[in-house]
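Forum > Structural Biology > Help requests

Title: Can anyone predict the 3D structure of FIST C-terminal domain-containing protein?

Hi all, first post here. I have the sequence for FIST C-terminal domain-containing protein but no way to get a structure on my laptop. I'd be grateful if someone could post the structure tokens.
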Amino acid sequence: MSDQMQWTNALSTRASLEAAINDVVEQATASLTAPADLGFVFISSAFMSEYPRLLPLLAEKLSVPVLIGCSAGGIIGRKKAEETEEIEAESALSLTLAHLPGVEIRPFHILVEDLPDSDSSPKAWIDLMGVPASPAPQFILLSSPFGSEINDLLAGLDFAYPGSVVVGGQASSGFMNGRIGLFCNDQLLREGIIGITLTGNIVLDTIVAQGCRPIGEPLQITKAERNIIIELDEKKPLMVLRDLIGSLSEYDRNLAQDSLFVGLAMDEFRLNLHSGDFLIRNILGVEPNAGVIAIGDRIRVGQRLQFHLRDASASAQDLEILLQKYQSQNTGTCSPVGSLIFTCLGRGKGLYGRPNVDSQLFSRYLHNLPISGFFCDGEIGPVSGRTFLHGYTSVFVICRSRE
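Reply #1:
Sure, ran it for you. Structure tokens for FIST C-terminal domain-containing protein below:
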């Protein structure tokens, strides 16, 4: 029998860090029949004072060549043979182990000051990452929460590594001004970006569920400056928006007061736009006198957009549509072995009113697939072939062999 990929996850909600580590190591190692090449560890911010103890305690029980992870306000994983759970604002530790034959795994740690200038050549990015552009590597990133530099990194990776998948999330705390932790092999880090490159016999499929539904019709930006929409279909955008809101049901009008977003169409040639074709961005503000709208991204004349609403129903429906699409498009490929989820702190119980909605919906379509991850302060994933930092989003990564 050929050497097969293996992937397993274990979750513990024990309040003692030592007990939690014993739990997850025992469960995870018992499920593998070959040595682990890669590990992911996600620890809840309930253990914030104990972050320095995590890696030394793990090293006493576990030997894995590459181990990365981070802290979070919520942790996702599977307890023994039970269903996947999303543990929010409580003690939790998740350990994922993978045996990946034919895959080269390289960990890295980058600081903001290491990033090349925005006009640098692809070579500067390739030198930074230490892996060639061909064969295309896959990237999993974990970062401290910081500003526009993460967008510079994502644009640089897209530029230098066309055809690569870049996914991940920003570590979170769950507490006001709480400290985060990034874990890379034997190091506890407090800032920058850590991650891995994966090259060889591996494919990372992605599902990026932004959790919105469109209202009205697609509109064309006919005048704009940076992130400010000055004209939509040659009309004042605020007038267009007021007319649209006036045409909505009472429920949607109420929802639009605090859950209204803009979806930017990513493919200018696609006539029929569906879930997954838009990049969802916040509305930052309006200027009533000029009738203009500012949004959370740069825009250009000619681009199409559609207003969107977000609520629990829209989020679940958006994810289900994308899962159905993934299932129908991947029937002939190698079976997936494991998955990761990077989901927003603004989802979970706060959005749905009950736990485990996203993870259970995922498991309904991808049965018995180990899934683990955390609640992020920003999620990283592709839309229409370009990588973005998202909010209020669930990014799923599905791992399978190429051959």
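Residues 312-329 form the longest helix (18 residues). The radius of gyration is 21 Å.
Shout if anything looks off.
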